[in-house]
Design brief:
5 helices; mainly alpha; rod-shaped; 0% strand
Length: 290
């Protein structure tokens, strides 16, 4: 009966051991998975820190370029105002000169534009077009002569030279504005792209962290299952050991009882005066009857 019980318990123990091994492997696999995800998360966090530093650098450069754009625009506006003032001064000088000479240069230029437009847009006979071309030519000559006369005026000549110089300065300042604005835009674009990368990495890090938490919870539950089977195995081992000890004790007692009975039988023979062998005497001594 004891042997059958022990056999059944050992079979049950083997089944529990197999289950425990399965849960142990599953738990270890989950821990390894969690470890790998933690490594990926840490690598992403390092990448996030790097991207944040890059964003800070690009933002600083963008803001610096924007400040330089602002300053360049202010300088350009000053130059443009000076250019506008010089244009007005030239017009005033030309008007004064035209009033003195009786020729209105601006009116001549307006008239020339009107004639040229008429030639390009209005249908006309060859004779009429020929006369129109002659008129345009004469107007050109008048304008040229008047401008040459005006350029003889030192004040006007100086104002025109300053206007040309101021225009060049304005164009140069405008180039600086555009150059700085492009650099600011380039830095901003890089920053926007990095912000997109940052958002993606932060989102992925959060997903991984959530997976790590869920994996650890699952691993803890699996570990509990493993411990339950380990405890069952220990309980069975304890029961098996108890049964085996009782069985061994019983066998020992049975052996002792048989030895005692044999010793008492020999002792009875001894009391009757029967001859005893050396082995019989040793049995009696062992049993404490001699």
């Amino acid at each position: 009966m004891d042997a059958e019980s022990i056999k059944l318990m050992r079979k049950e123990k083997n089944d529990f051991q197999q289950k425990a091994n399965e849960f142990k492997k599953k738990r270890d696999d989950l821990h390894e998975k969690s470890k790998k995800m933690a490594k990926e998360r840490d690598e992403l966090n390092a990448k996030i820190r790097k991207i944040r530093n890059e964003i800070t650098d690009h933002k600083k450069r963008r803001d610096d370029y924007n400040e330089r754009v602002k300053h360049a625009k202010e300088q350009r506006n000053i130059v443009l105002k000076n250019h506008f003032d010089l244009k007005k001064k030239i017009k005033d000088l030309e008007r004064d000169k035209s009033s003195a000479s009786g020729v209105n240069l601006n009116r001549l230029k307006q008239n020339l534009r009107k004639l040229e437009n008429e030639q390009m847009t209005q249908p006309m006979s060859p004779d009429k077009e020929k006369k129109l071309i002659e008129t345009i030519k004469e107007t050109h000559m008048q304008i040229k002569e008047e401008e040459e006369e005006l350029n003889k005026d030192p004040r006007l000549k100086k104002a025109i030279e300053e206007k040309i110089l101021m225009k060049q300065k304005a164009e140069k300042q405008h180039e600086i504005v555009e150059k700085m604005a492009k650099k600011a835009q380039d830095e901003h674009q890089i920053m926007v792209e990095l912000l997109g990368q940052l958002d993606n990495n932060i989102r992925r890090t959060s997903e991984i962290q959530e997976e790590i938490v869920m994996t650890k919870i699952e691993a803890d539950n699996v570990h509990k299952e493993f411990i339950e089977y380990v405890n069952k195995i220990h309980e069975l081992e304890k029961n098996i050991s108890g049964i085996e000890k009782k069985r061994d004790h019983r066998k020992k007692m049975e052996t002792v009882s048989a030895a005692k009975k044999e010793a008492y039988d020999i002792y009875e023979k001894f009391k009757k005066g029967e001859k005893l062998s050396t082995e019989d005497i040793m049995i009696l001594q062992k049993a404490g009857l001699l």
